[in-house]
Structure formats: C-alpha cells, structure tokens
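The passage that follows is intended for readers who have already worked through the single-chain material. We present the inputs for a multi-component assembly, then the predicted structure in tokenized form, and finally a short commentary. You are encouraged to pause after the input and sketch how you expect the pieces to fit together before reading on.
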Amino acid sequence: MKLSEFFVTGEPLIYAGMVAIVLVTCAIVFLLTYFKRWGWLWREWLTTVDHKKIGIMYILSALAMLFRGGVDALMMRVQLAFPDLNFLNSQHYNEIFTTHGTVMIIFMAMPFLIGLMNIVVPLQIGARDFAFPYVNALSFWSFFFGALLFNISFVIGGSPDAGWTSYTPLAGAALSPGPGQNFYLLGLQLSGIGTLATGINLMVTILKMRAPGMKLFQMPIFTWSTLVTCFIIIFAFPILTVALALMTIDRIFGAQFFTLTGEGMPMLWANLFWMWGHPEVYIVILPAFGIFSEIIATFANKRLFGYKAMVWSMILIAGLSFLVWVHHFFTMGAGAFVNSVFSVSTMLIAVPTGVKIFNWLGTLYKSKIQFTTPMLWSLAFIPSFVIGGVTGVMLGMAAADYQFHNSYFLIAHFHYVLIAGTVFACFAGLEYWYPKMFGHKLNQKLGKLSFWLFVIGFHITFFPQYFLGLDGMPRRLFDTAPEWFTLNFISTIGAFGMGAGFALFVLNIYYSYKTSPREKTGDSWDGRTLEWATPTPIPHYNFATQPTVKELDAFHDMKKRGETTYDESKLKPIHMPNYSGQPFIMMGLLFFSSFALVFEWIILSAVFLVAVLVMMGIHSFDYDDGYHVEVEDIKRTERQLRGLNDEHTGS
Amino acid sequence: MSTQEAKHTPLEYQTTHGQMNILGFWIFLAAEVVLFSTLFATYAVLFGRTADSPLPSELFGAEIVLIMTFLLLTSSFTCGIAIHNMRQGQVKPLIIWMVITLLLGLGFLGFEIYEFMHYTHEGATLQSSAFWSSFYVLAGTHGLHVTLGIGWATLLIIQIVKRGLTPVTSQKVFIISLYWHFLDVIWIFIFTAVYLIGMVV
Ligand code: HEM
Ligand SMILES: [Cu+2]
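Having made your guess, compare it with the prediction:
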C-alpha cells in the first residue's frame, strides 16, 4: 500500500483537519512536558480504577465526540442551506452523515450517560466503587480506543460512507471496498466489548453492593434506570457483536452472509442491526429519564410522584423495546400481517412512556419550582420530547410510514427524541452533578444563556424538518431542490444557534472554574439521595461508614432526622483496589490488532491479539489484593472535609 | 456468618467478592446465550441457501459427530467430578479430573478440526454459500470457546498447583466449570439443530 493511499488526500477540509490534529497533539505533548505532568497523567488517570475518575474521563471524551459530531452536523447543514452548493461533494457528504450518526449514538450519547452512571450510581447506593473496578477501567479504555479507531478513519484510510445503519449490500465488500467500512465494524466492536462489560459490572454493583437496608424499591430512580438499562445492554449488545462480526467475516474473509452472491441475504443485516438498534435507542433514553426524574424531584422539592409506576413503566419499556424492531423497515415488504403486529407493538411502547410524562407533570403539580439550569433543561425536555414521541407513533403506523419512511420527517422524529431526551439530559445531568464532581457549580447565568440558545436553536433546526419531510425531501441527500430552500435555510440557522449554545456551555466550564465559589458542604442543591451525603471533594473511598437506609430519598430522610452518614465510632479500615496500567495497555494492544485488521493485515492483527491474550494470562496470575485505608487516615480526611475539630467527634 | 454456616458454604462463596464474581459470570453467560441464539437464528434463516455447494445431508455423517458429542458430554461429567472433589477439599483428584476434562476437550477439538477439513475438501467452505458461512461461524464460535476454555483452565490448574485451594482459586475453578457446562449445553443444541436436522433434511 502506498503512503498516498494510507493517508486521505485531495480534500482541503481534511487537510485542515490533519493540521488541526497535529497542532493539538503537539500542544498537548508540549504542555505535559513543560509542566512535567506525564507522571501525573499516568499515575492519576491512565491507571486509575476509581469510578469517579473513570466517569470524568468518559464525560470528557463524550464532550470531545459531541464536538466532532457537531462539526459534522454543521458541515451538513451548510451544504443543505442553499440548493446546488458545492461545499461538500456527494462522497464527502456520505462520509459525514455516516460518521455523524455513529459518533453521536455510540461515542457520544452512550459514553456520556455511562460516565454519569459511573460517577453517580455507586454514590447513590452507598457503595465504595464498582463491583469490578479493574473491569471498569478495561471498559473505559475499550470505549476510548474504539472511538479513536473510528475517528482516525477520516485522515487514515478514509471514513465509512454507508450510513450509521450500514445496510448491506451497500456496506459489503463489493460495493464499499477499502478500509472505510472496516473502521466502522472494528471501532464499534472494540467499544462494544466495554459497553457489555459495563452492563454486567453495574448490574452486579447495583444488585450486590447497596447500602444496608436499601431495598430494590428504595433505590433512587436514576439507579433504577441504570439497572434497567444494564438489562437491555446485556440482551442487546451480543446481537450487535454477532452482526458486526458477520459483516467483518463477509468483508475480510469472503463469507456470504449479507452478499448478493452465494444466496446471501442482505436484509438479514437490517434485522440484526435493528434487533440491537431499537433496544439501543432505549439504552440512551432510559438513563435520560432517570436523570430528569432526579432533577425534577430535587427542584420541585417533592418526592417523585408515582415512583413505583415510573419503575414499572421502565421495566415494561425495556421488555417491549425488543419487540418492535421491524418498524425500521416496514417498507421492506414483510407483508401486512407482520407489519401490523409490529405496528401495534410499537404503539404499545408509547403507553408506558406516556405514564412517565404524567408522573413528571404530577411531580411538578402544585410544587414550588426552583428554576436552576438543570431544571430548565428538564422542563424543556417534557414538551419537546412529547413532540418526538407523538411523531414516533405516526411513524409507527405501517401504512403511513410508507410515506414518511426515510424522509426528513423521520430525521426530525429521532432528533426530537434523541436531542430533547438524551442530549438535554446529558447537559442537565452534568450541570446537576457538576459540583459533586469538581467542587463548584457551573455559572447559572451563562448556563441559562447557553440553555436558551441551544433549545431555541434546536426547535428552529428540527421543527421545519417535519415539514420538509412531508414535502417529500428524502434523508441522506447531498443536494437540495429550490422548493425546499426556505425551510432548509431556517434549519441551518437553528443549527448554528445550537452550535453557539454548545460553545457557551464549554466556555462556561472554563469560566466557572475561574470564578465560581467553591462548595463548602457536599449538599449543593438540598438533594434527596445519598450522593449528596458525601463531602465535596468526595474522598476516594466515598463513604467512611456505610449509611443504613430506611426509605426512598434516604438523604432527605436523614436530614430531617438530623443525621449524617458519618459515624466516627463505627470506622473500620477500608479495603480499596490498587491502580493498574494493565487495562490501558491491554486495550491499546487490542486497538493495534483492530487497526491492522482494518487494513486486512491479518498476521499483524493476530500477533497483537496474541499479545492481548498473554496480558490476560498475566492478569490471571496477578493476585493483587488491593490495600487498606487505615482508620486514622479516614478520620483525618473526614474531619478536615466535614470541618469537624477534635472536640466534636462524630455528630 | 456463623462458623456453622461457614462450614456449609462452599469455599468459593465465602467472600462477597467471590459471590460477586460468580453472579457476574452468570450474567455474562446470559449474554453468551444471546450471542449463540443470534448465531442459531442466522443459521436457521440461511438454512438451505447452499447455492451450488454441497448439501449438508451429503456431508454430515453420524459417526464422528456422535464421538464428539460423547467426548464433550463425558468431559462435562468429569468436570462435575472435579468440582465435587474441590468441595471436599481434595486438591490432587481435582487436578487429575480437570486434566482429564481438558484432554477430552482437546479430543473434541481434534475431531472438529478434522470434520471442518473434510467438508472443505468436499467443496463446502466458509466462502461457498450463505448456508456454509453460517455453519462454520456457528460451529466455529463454539469451537473457539472450547479452545479458550482449555487455555484458561490450564492457567487455573497451574494456579491450583501453586496456591492450593483458597477462596480465590476455588472461585476461579468454579467459574470455569460453569463455562464448561455451558459449552456442553450449546453443543447439544448444535448437535440437534445443525447435525441431526442437517442429516435428514
Ligand atoms: C413513543 C415512542 C417511539 C415510537 C413510537 C417510535 C417510532 C419510530 C419509528 C416507527 C421509526 C422508524 C421510522 C422509519 O424509518 O420510517 C423510528 C425511527 C427512529 N427512532 Fe423512534 N420511536 C419512539 C421513540 C424513540 C426514542 C425514545 C428514540 C431515541 C432516544 C428514538 C430514536 C429513533 C431513531 C434513532 C430512529 C431512526 C434511525 C434511522 O433510521 O437512522 N425513537 N422511531
Ligand atoms: Cu425503533
């Protein structure tokens, strides 16, 4: 392979991207060297097994991915703003909508939510870490390197261009030769391993490590949503694993699963993809529901209305989410009977979703609302998401879907649910738990400004797209027609509004770091759940003594009774796991193995794979048992953080 | 836990960590069930799509597959004996039975490789049709699992030799035994759904 084929050449925008990457990398290397921070980076971050730090790394990566996916989106909107514009050619446009969709769902939405789960769930259940902290680090690095593999495709080898759904035969070796599609397959495969492991890890954590006394139906609602999400992950992700593997085997080893030759079956891919893909959309929406529920309860200053109904509707949604996948290809022609069955099951999902909407309204009803930024996101979510849901039900009517399918109506639908649901929740959750993570709040004024810019921009962008769809504009079109000009132009303006909102959000992180007052108590918002019972900054062992839980809203309950979770008389040495560089190295090797496979350098790929297996073997012999934090150390830490002096022992 | 209870709780369940590992592994097995179900479904959908390669009924023969089934089922049994010995705290028989288990597993693999070579020789390869692609990937994934299981169990036997039975080592051995039985169950499905049906249809 020639070097000019290895690197992507001939595109001015991509050259600019390369320059940007080189400059940023140099800047990072320079800063780390200049401030002598390499050791710190390795010791504190790359080797960490602490769920709080891993969560922060997830969120930082997700923000970077949101930026990348956002730049893709703006480029698409520029191209669509005027008919006959030649900002992006058709090939480049195809690549960009493919990477946009994949990055946003797999490398932005999921990691952002998993990051929040990482930080919050152990704290909410009164645990000291995940059930398997080492595996948690593995999961993070598998996501990180998967994302890296996918993202380098735009400078090395060329991006995939068959859509985030990668339908065959288009995505097969005959019609998409070259490494592009392999980047998609292996990037997702690599990060998928981590997602599955996180699902198992969090499930065991929630089932086994809850504070004494906390029954399942006393768990905070975000923890519940996480548990249900884990269930979906565990049953949906293996399907993706298989689907990706089969296409990889097709492309690289010449099998005939999805091909047009050898009696292969291209539509089998669509089925497998959506058997994972529909549950996947619920993987990214249920945690969002959990976040909004926490925030709404806190700032309405009320116990969540209909907690049990909320939990049961999530469980119902999780079950139903596996029974609706065909609604993504009603037009495939499976016949009236099959389409009717899936049409009905699709509409059934709207029922438990509606129940949740009414529960949020019920919580807000007659309450004294505090209009903080996280609360604003939550309030904006409710009506926006309803629009997305109602249009979803319209799409769910099989006969009507022949009209809507693959038009901008569909595009508007899923952006209404994904942005108003998942993205609003990520912002809301980050602002809500930010003081717990970093010891100060995000500035409310700037936060609100970014909120309004983003939300108004969002509606301006996507509301017109419903009408573009009804006017017949198909999705994945790189060149628009004059009759669609006005609505497209409006939509592009809105997109820049969202961009500005996001930029302000990121700016606010820096501004608040400089100016926000530091938190003095751990309880920044008069919270109701256990994460607010820890001091800020949270000691690495989270809870010096494990609280005993008697009710839902455990911390609210404790505060009423004048208790804290800290009881000095009950201090015992705390067992903690050691940090380890293995997860980083192991996943780094797997990255190289996958990278080699992308270019079909099979022997090299196998060599790296063997290295990974050797690492796993080494780990198997490693009986490192962690260490204990001594009582004296705990006492010193807690007294300092809680502002207790020696006379006032305990409380 | 009272000393009375402690006596009756198997070693691998005595620490919370052991319990969590075992629960986590059960959940992992649930994910594996989904993985194999997807492969079985793919196989079922692509059944009969042989294009112009040989039909399964022309190639599948009863003898070798029966021997393979016999080997793997017996290995599940010997694995059970090994765990029984572990519960009694007998290290030596544990190791002997584990080694027998692995030898049986190796035998199974040997026959499977022989089968695959035979089919390939007859013109049924991974590339020849959708049906054969799904056959090789389904049976091959199982075979790959057996291979990994053998490698993993070998490492555990070395650890038992070095450390004896502790809550940690016994929990590891217990988990691999779950894995081994699971692979046996999957094989029974492959035997019936793939070979028996493939022979008659
Ligand atoms: C009230 C519940 C919902 C219903 C009834 C519904 C229904 C549908 C239907 C029928 C389609 C396929 C339309 C077509 O291709 O012609 C669709 C597509 C889609 N929906 Fe929904 N949906 C609902 C909620 C959600 C949620 C909560 C999310 C994610 C957070 C979501 C994300 C998506 C995505 C990503 C697609 C299309 C992906 C693609 O083709 O690229 N939906 N929805
Ligand atoms: Cu769907």
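Commentary: The longest helix of chain B spans residues 130-163. The two ends of chain B are 57 Å apart (CA to CA). How closely did your sketch match?
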